[in-house]
Amino acid sequence: MITINPYLYFNGNCEEAFEFYKSVFEAEFKYIGRYKDVQQSDKHIFREQGDKIMHVSLPISKETILMGADNTQLYHEAVSNNTFSLSINTDEKELAEKLFQKLAKGGRIKLAMKETFWGSYYGIVHDKFGINWKISFEAS
What we know:
alpha/beta; 4-stranded mixed sheet; 3 helices; globular; 8 strands
């Protein structure tokens, strides 16, 4: 089995973003580590400091873990090359709507949830942390 687990970079607000995602997906962190906890011998590979997030993992389903870190350099590269969206497919229409509404809080709805010509209940939201989410439910 192959799985894809998104890794998101933030400009110092990773913890705030992941607390938000924790509430959206009603999940608990599997791991959260800070730069200050990195062993002294490995500090040279990390540019960020102190209480900033070195790595966080949040299981959002049996197969998928949402991961992230504070990394100013990679964040700026990602923002300037923002060519991705995270796509979530649910097995319940109500769950698709619930996730969409939660992700939209403080963000911007790009396409409201609606029935599409290809048979999905689908919407796009740009969350308050700058991440694009495509949410869909496809009835079988």
